[in-house]
Design brief:
The structure is a single chain. This protein has three domains: about 100 residues, Helix Hairpins, CATH 1.10.287; about 120 residues, Rossmann fold (3-Layer(aba) Sandwich); about 90 residues, Alpha-Beta Plaits (2-Layer Sandwich). The chain is α/β, with parallel strands linked by helices. It is built from 14 helices and ten strands.
Length: about 350
């Protein structure tokens, strides 16, 4: 539901288009009414009758023979009255043909559905993750309110609607948008917006409006977990941690490592993540430290999958007490800038 196209705004737009021609038409009828009285000496009833048969094109004939001035006056009434009338009909037709009436009906229907909704799911963001979440929820016949602020995505979503889905155009970080989505009656809020800051703000607002709502949020940076817990998030999903768990699970179970690479390639949410091999240099402060002391995940947000020593093959899932030696090559998984950061640490 586009909040910018609310029923009131659609009505206001229509009124603005029709108000001037309506005033002009009313003025023409008023002039016609008094004109016949003044020019032809008609009674008020006769004047109204003359106006009705003139504009209705009934053609009953004149009540009395009109003077030359009266006929010219009638011609002018017909020309101006019909011109304004056709203009009004055109505007009303345009309102119907352009779909404004359909939008009004659709919005009224969605507003009614929204008022009746309770224990529904609010999804904030319709990116790759949000789209999949919405599709899966609808498959399970859950009632969903989707909030999306991206203009391009909203254009694709404008015709997407069924009885279990309501689409709201707006910024989920705004309180009035969340209230419009029925946050006070919702069961779950799923925050999959672009940045951690946006998801954190939505989490705080959701818990403020509804203490009982369950909040599921995605985070990009693992060091944000503490902030989200303080904000009241019930479930915190980190793509990189999911990837780490999957890596260790596959690697330690004896599965070919390349099968995991194929798995990672098939997941859209992991497309920005890469594998990197970082060699430890002589000047690095990591030399001689244990993996616990090196604290690589906290320093770089990378997942350390394993390492190659100068003598051994790949060692998967190094223990916290294992030491990092000069020349070791760490196999890591994360974003490109995070891998580059570790390379800098490994050099100096």
């Amino acid at each position: 539901m586009d909040r910018k196209l609310s029923p009131n705004k659609i009505k206001t737009s229509l009124y603005k288009k029709l108000i001037l021609p309506l005033i002009i038409l009313l003025a023409i009828l008023t002039i016609g009414f008094f004109g016949y009285i003044y020019l032809e000496g008609f009674t008020p009833v006769e004047s109204i009758y003359m106006l009705v048969i003139t504009f209705a094109t009934i053609g009953y004939g004149e009540i009395h023979d009109l003077s030359e001035e009266g006929r010219i006056f009638t011609i002018l009434l017909i020309i101006t009255g019909f011109s304004v009338g056709f203009y009004l009909i055109g505007k009303v037709s345009e309102f119907v043909i352009d779909g404004e009436l359909a939008k009004l009906i659709k919005i009224r229907k969605m507003n009614k559905s929204l008022k009746e909704m309770h224990n529904h799911y609010i999804v904030c963001g319709y990116g790759k993750t949000g789209r999949k979440v919405v599709e899966d929820l609808l498959t399970k016949n859950k009632k969903v309110v989707l909030i999306e602020g991206n203009a391009e995505r909203n254009e694709k979503l404008k015709d997407l609607y069924n009885e279990n889905l309501i689409h709201i155009v707006g910024d989920a970080t705004h309180d009035d948008v969340l209230l419009h989505a029925g946050i006070e009656k919702a069961k779950y809020l799923i925050a999959v917006l672009t940045t951690d800051a946006e998801n954190l703000f939505v989490t705080l607002s959701a818990k403020d409006f509804n203490k009982n709502i369950k909040v599921i949020t995605r985070i990009e940076e693992t060091n944000s977990t503490g902030k989200f817990k303080k904000a009241g998030a019930d479930y915190i999903i980190s793509p990189i941690e999911i990837a780490s768990e999957r890596i260790v699970s596959i690697a330690t179970s004896g599965t070919d490592f390349f099968s995991f690479m194929e798995f990672a390639e098939s997941k859209e949410e992991l497309h920005e993540y890469k594998f990197g091999l970082v060699q430890i240099g002589e000047s690095s402060d990591l030399v001689g430290k244990t993996y616990r002391e090196a604290n690589i995940p906290q320093r770089t947000q990378l997942v350390v999958i394993g390492y190659y020593s100068l003598l051994d093959e790949l060692q998967v899932n190094p223990k916290a007490d294992n030491k990092i030696e000069l020349g070791d090559k760490l196999l890591v998984f994360g974003l490109e800038h995070q891998i580059n950061e570790l390379k800098m640490i490994a050099k100096s």
